[in-house]
Amino acid sequence: MSLTNEIIQQRLTEKFGEQVSAFSISYDMLQFEAPKEINLKVLNFLYDDPQLGFIFLTDLTGVHYPDQKGRELAVVYHLHNLKENIRLRFKVYTAVEQPDVYTATGLFSSANWMERETYDFFGINFLGHPNLKRILNVDEMDYFPLRKEFPLEDQTRIDKDDEMFGRG
Amino acid sequence: MSEHIKLPEGSIEKTTTTLNLGPTHPATHGVMQNILELDGERIVSADQTIGYIHRAFEKLAERRPLAQITTLTDRLNYCSSPLNNMGWHMTCEKLLGITTPKRVDYLRVIVMELARIADHLICNSIMGVDAGAYTGFLYVMQYRELIYEIYEEICGARLTTNMGRIGGFERNFNDIAFQKLEKFLDEYPKALKEFENMFQRNRIFMDRTMGVGGISAERALNYGFTGPNLRAAGVDYDVRVHAPYSSYQDFEFIIPVGSTGDSYDRWLVREQEMWQSLSIIRQAYQKVQSFTGAEAEVYHADVPEYYLPAKQDVYTKMEALIYHFKIIMGETDIPAGEVYHAVEGGNGELGFYLISDGGRAPYRLHFRRPCFIYYQAFEELVKGAMLSDAIITMSSLNLIAGEMDA
User: Fold this and answer.
1) SS3 of B356, please?
2) pLDDT tens column, A16-58
3) Cβ-based neighbours of B70, under 8 Å, separated by 6 or more
4) How would you class A25 by CB atoms within 10 Å of its CB: exposed for 0-12, middle for 13-18, buried for 19 or more?
5) B355-366 average pLDDT score
6) Closest Cα to residue B371, out of B58, B90, B136, B80?
7) CA atoms of B165 and B366, how far apart (whole Å)
8) Residue in B376, B380, B383, B399 to test binding to A, most A beta-carbons within 10 Å
9) Cα separation of B307 and B98, whole Å?
10) Distance of CA A97 to the CA centre of its chain
11) Using an 8 Å Cβ cutoff, are B275 and B256 in contact?
């Protein structure tokens, strides 16, 4: 029996009930979220369940939403079931004041550098990571550059009117 | 430590040697550092440092309209820029819901497979250089040059191509481009065969690469390997087949797989893929030639909001002028949504994760860079091996610093 988005959603709700939420389909890919406390439980379930078998971590990254109070930072996992050839996107949100999320390195060796990169750019603290230090930026850096509070252009410039450039 | 050397009082005797391989070492082929801990010539541990050419593409992309991001993708895997360009255009098209005409798809396939050949050619010949065979490298460079000349005819650039637009190509392929393609299809197979004869059953090359840097399929999957490196370990995962894009479903080709996942298998898989790419290019060229009449002139989809109008129209037609202005000034809002699109890049699954909040630029753009993900397995690959094995393992992985550091 081939695996479909409906079956994945059904299996997840059977197992975690109300805790997994916000199911939606975005450009054919199932996406959902869970509280950050159970991120490893969800990943483990997706990995181990004989029917699901999401054994390949395609991508792990962060997103910063400064306007969402209490859930400013998101960690996004892209998982792939290679046998059934189906992908899904799984998100956990965390507050920016205490950005602690459990590491997935125990499950996926590939998560090691991807989590380091996410820490490097967003400051998400992966609890239990074997070597959580900066990877692309210099070690001395004391901020997390992909957060939205760091604008790309010098904000003190007055010779450019953003309104004129569709950037207002 | 020798009994003749008197160590200063209180010093600790160290039995291993630390060796800095890189950041600018002729054998690293890119700016990356490896701190190797050696016991004699055996590697005890390896600590990779990357990020020397980090250029903050993901941050830059948050301020740019879609069309301006193409130039950033050029600089990821710069051995196969057109592949990245096409991957990016297809991501945008997926987000915007644009379907491209078949002829555009086939032209794209030609360009992408040429880029794959260029990429694999570099990697395989560089492996020869690192094993002491410089001749093969110099010899096949001529044929990469032929590929670059084709790029030049198509888009005017050679290395960082910025090729194509959202919806298709900026201009139709001219006759010279097709002539050059025919020349390449005619001359290259002979050279590739010669190159293959030089290495494939070469005792020295086989001894240097077989059993070096091997990885099991299970570990490779756990480490997020994709592309030829994963296929060399025996997993037949190829994005072109698993999630066909740009009409790859219309082509007949096989996916070569290895068994041991070592450097030799990686070399063989790439070699075989070049033959497959050649066959795909021939099929695509045939399909392109089969179009007749008005269809034979199609080189882009009809998407005026994202595709720049012809310059003469801008001066004479109102709509064209408006679209031109909006595109150049980046005033077109893109629809809100989240999209992940992957293409089979030169060294693995190149993915684009684009989040749009409905503004002019992406809210967040993340590149899934294959070699960034699989390079972390390097320590496991070389632990216990000789120093010279580390060099050949590194070149067999097809690491591109530009892609790794984004």
Assistant:
1) strand
2) 999 999 999 989 899 999 999 999 999 999 999 998 999 999 9
3) B85, B88, B89, B162, B164
4) exposed
5) 91
6) B80
7) 20
8) B376
9) 11
10) 17
11) no
Question: Contact at 8 Å (CB) between B394 and B373?
Answer: no
Vertex B343 angle, CA B340 and B344, to 5°? 145
Indicate yes or no: CB of B221 within 8 angstroms of CB of A117.
Answer: no
For residue A168, pLDDT over 60 is answered with: no
Look up residue B172 and give its two tokens: 């139709």
How many beta-carbon pairs below 8 A join chains A and B?
Answer: 97
Q: Which residues of B touch A82 (CB under 8 A)?
A: 221, 235, 237, 242
Shortest Cα–Cα distance, A166 to chain B (Å): 5
Q: How far apart are CA B131 and CA B197, in angstroms?
A: 16
Among A117, A137, A166, select the one facing B331 at the smallest CB separation. A166
Tell me, rounded to whole angstroms, the distance of Cα B90 from its chain centroid. Answer: 16
CB atoms within 10 A of CB B315: 10
Question: Among B354, B364, B335, B366, which residue's Cα sits nearest to residue A152?
Answer: B364
In chain A, the domains with their CATH numbers are 5-148 (3.30.460.80)
Residue B377 with chain A: CB contacts under 8 Å = 109
What's the farthest any 2 CA atoms get from each other in chain A? 63
Please answer yes or no on whether B62 and A58 come within 8 Å at the CB atom. Answer: no
Cα–Cα distance for residue pair B319/B307, rounded to 1 Å: 13
Q: Rounded to 5 degrees, what are φ and ψ at A94?
A: -145, 155
Mutation target vs A (from B33, B50, B94, B223; most A CBs, 10 A cutoff)? B223
CB B263 within 8 A of CB B127: yes
Q: Which residue has the tokens 């086939």?
A: B106
Is the C-alpha dihedral spanning B4, B8, B9, B10 positive or negative? negative
pLDDT at position B212, please?
92
Q: Which two tokens stand for residue B66?
A: 């879609």
**Which residues in chain A have Cβ-Cβ distances shorter than 8 Å to B331?**
166
A165 CB neighbours in chain B (<8 A) are: 329-330
Where do the domains of chain B lie, and which CATH numbers do they carry? 57-405 (1.10.645.10)
> Residue B280: which of B85, B150, B86, B112 has the closest Cα?
B112
What is the percent of chain B with per-residue pLDDT over 70, rounded to a whole number?
A: 99
Q: Do B94 and A55 touch (CB under 8 A)?
A: no
